[in-house]
């Protein structure tokens, strides 16, 4: 019997094989681009659940990334309790969720632009705390990130040399598989939430609050739960970012980072896990690629020079800002919708058949033969 899910599973398996093989062929730069994209995708999936599915506008995602990153650094570092890095990672994610839980009463009572302004205050408050709490955050200069170790295996190049199939595995190669595992876990859990009763309740809350309340959805509770879950995903993304950067500084977790995450989910497609991942890859990789190839691009200044009117980071923001406008005008469902329509056009042999009616069609009335005298 043919399984309709086989093509999707085959594509998923093929993508997993390719992603696992990339560290054997790519250099450190491309692996860092991939790692930054994975971390951004984890955070974008969480924001997609909150904004795309639950309909709650949040401009404070950078704050929860900072809680996860600095929470791991402090918990595993010498300035803090010095916990094992694996335990510090889990506690940092829970700490970000607790921060979201403390803010959840506000999220459960307000929505729309009012919630956006309230979360915007978190970014400025958090940035001020990061600059002033020197004993925890290191102030303006930040802190070095303790390397992660699991079962004696260190995700850093400072440990024992590791060679796999003739390829030396440094920090980027080792972190690559950690990032893949965390991203797969994120997508799997988020997809389960969306397909289960919580996802249907959040979608009903987003579409019509009155109808959702009539169906028995507790509005404030589900809004708060969505905010806590999104904060935990952001905390996990912050930990992975800290491990890749190897040093965290307050200026990275500013308002621009929150705006970038909103751009990711809008470009990728609201309410879609795959769309959030695609948007995160585009928004994260574009400035890095433009920085590397700035000397070959017109009107773009190479880093440290004044050869063009704009720098690569500003040029990348202009490009995906224009992409947001085009997406909103011509493809409101984002890259996910464009990919779905492209697959439909690429398979002309598939013809859509009308779904059978939910009840059998009535028999046509029998014709009565007229009696002629």
TrEMBL record:
Coiled coil start-end: none
The protein's matches in InterPro entries, at most eight in alphabetical order, are given as: ABC_transp_permease, LivM-like
Composition bias, Basic residues:
344-353
Question: Which residues does the annotated region (Disordered) include?
Answer: 344-373
Instruction: Output compositional bias ranges, type Pro residues.
Output: 355-365
Compartments, record wording: Cell membrane
- Write the protein's name: Branched-chain amino acid ABC transporter permease
Q: Does the keyword Transmembrane helix apply?
A: yes
Q: What is its main location?
A: membrane
Q: Would the keyword Ribonucleoprotein turn up in this protein's UniProt record?
A: no
Recorded source organism is Streptomyces doudnae
Gene Ontology cellular-component annotations: plasma membrane
Please name the Pfam families in this protein's record. Answer: BPD_transp_2
Upper taxonomic lineage: Bacteria, Bacillati, Actinomycetota, Actinomycetes, Kitasatosporales
Keywords tagged on the record: Cell membrane, Membrane, Transmembrane, Transmembrane helix
Membrane topology summary:
Multi-pass membrane protein
What residues form the membrane-spanning segments? 35-52, 59-77, 83-106, 113-131, 175-194, 225-246
């Amino acid at each position: 019997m043919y399984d309709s899910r086989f093509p999707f599973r085959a594509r998923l398996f093929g993508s997993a094989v390719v992603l696992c093989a990339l560290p054997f062929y790519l250099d450190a730069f491309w692996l860092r681009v991939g790692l930054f994209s994975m971390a951004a995708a984890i955070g974008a999936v969480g924001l997609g659940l909150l904004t795309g599915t639950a309909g709650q506008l949040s401009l404070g995602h950078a704050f929860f990334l900072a809680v996860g990153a600095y929470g791991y650094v402090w918990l595993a570092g010498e300035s803090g309790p010095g916990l094992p890095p694996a335990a510090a990672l889990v506690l940092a994610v829970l700490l970000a969720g607790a921060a979201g839980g403390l803010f959840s009463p506000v999220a459960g009572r307000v929505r729309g632009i009012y919630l956006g302004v309230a979360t915007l205050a978190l970014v400025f408050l958090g940035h001020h705390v990061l600059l002033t709490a020197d004993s925890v955050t290191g102030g303006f200069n930040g802190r070095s990130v303790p390397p992660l170790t699991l079962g004696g295996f260190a995700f850093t190049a400072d440990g024992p040399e590791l060679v796999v199939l003739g390829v030396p595995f440094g920090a980027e190669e080792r972190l690559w598989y950690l990032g893949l595992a965390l991203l797969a876990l994120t997508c799997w859990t988020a997809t389960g939430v969306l397909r289960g009763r919580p996802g249907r309740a959040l979608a009903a809350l987003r579409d019509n609050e009155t109808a959702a309340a009539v169906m028995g959805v507790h509005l404030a509770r589900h809004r708060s739960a969505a905010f806590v879950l999104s904060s935990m995903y952001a905390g996990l993304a912050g930990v992975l970012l800290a491990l890749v950067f190897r040093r965290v500084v307050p200026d990275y977790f500013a308002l621009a980072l929150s705006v970038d995450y909103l751009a990711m989910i809008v470009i990728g497609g609201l309410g879609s896990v795959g769309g959030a991942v695609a948007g995160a890859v585009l928004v994260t990789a574009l400035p890095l690629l433009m920085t590397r190839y700035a000397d070959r691009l017109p009107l773009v200044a190479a880093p440290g020079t004044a050869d063009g009117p704009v720098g690569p980071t500003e040029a990348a923001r202009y490009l995906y800002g224009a992409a947001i406008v085009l997406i909103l005008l011509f493809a409101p469902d984002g890259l996910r919708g464009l990919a779905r329509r492209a697959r439909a056009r690429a398979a002309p042999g598939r013809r859509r058949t009308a779904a059978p009616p939910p009840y059998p069609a009535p028999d046509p009335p029998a014709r009565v033969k007229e009696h002629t005298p």
